[in-house]
Input
Amino acid sequence: MEISKLFKEKKIVYSFEIFPPKLNSPIEVIYDTLSHLENLKHDYLSVTYGAGGSDVKSRTCDIASIIKNKYNIEPLSHLTCINSKKDEVRQVLDALRDGNVTNILAMRGDKQPGTIVADDFKFSYHLMDFIARNGGFNIAGACYPEGHPECESLTKDIEYMKKKQDCGAEFFITQMFFDNGLFYEFINKARKTGVTAPVQVGIMPITSTKQIERIVYLSGARIPQKLSKLLARYGSNKEAMTQAGIIYATEQIMDLVENNVQGIHIYTMNNLNIARRITENINSVISMENTSYLG
Ligand code: FAD
Output
């Protein structure tokens, strides 16, 4: 099933992101995660590709295929191209096709210090164009409500987002953000620039001070005062901070729903307890929005 079609059938598409287990853990450990997620109502499951520097790329296709064929859940397989040759990408596409996986989140990937950058694909839209020419895949792209850290301006970044759409991206998932106001400004600008594809928002539940420090370092996300205050007040207590982070994410989602967001994608960090608690907080609301949408 093409995930982009879901946005026509539903008012709010709801999904989770997981990452593959490290190479020194057996691939079967993912079964536990998948069995738990299976019980949480959602539309699809995305699987990261070598994110966080760990070399587990080879596992992404296998896990996406397991999600589809064993659990009957729609997978979105992430794919990056920064260090890849065309032949390597062709092999990944063949493996995805063999595994019955049709949805790909196509990205450039982060520039790691010291890695050799192959020039077959300079930007994500070169990869999208390549996948589109190969045929048979539904392509998604990443977008950045606060601008990608390397880009000279948000306006330029949105122009490149439009280029992704022109090269085959049929829907987008945002980088995490914590201030909905920034997303509303971004989506208005994107629509004015000609981006018509659905945009699903990525929500990261914050459960520790260490986690937020890493996020700010990697993505440059702005932290609103309300979230800083929660971290200052509850950051020293794991349970209290987890609860406060879940409440913050829930309120963020409720505000987005009230403002007609097209989809919510939860960055689960493979933490099933948090995915479950957030889903329980909002599933009736999303269900009702989707039911009234169908009339
Ligand atoms: P691009 O679209 O290629 O953009 C990269 C930069 O180049 C931007 O600053 C853009 O503005 C600029 N640019 C684009 N075109 C031009 C041009 N013609 N001239 C000059 N500048 C230009 N990383 C992983 O490794 N694995 C994952 O699984 C993964 N999952 C992700 C999921 C989501 C939802 C998001 C938001 C990010 C994810 N990432 C992942 C991180 C992503 O790979 C990085 O953010 C990466 O640095 C950029 O990828 P991109 O596809 O947006 O790049």
Summary: The chain has a mean pLDDT of 94.
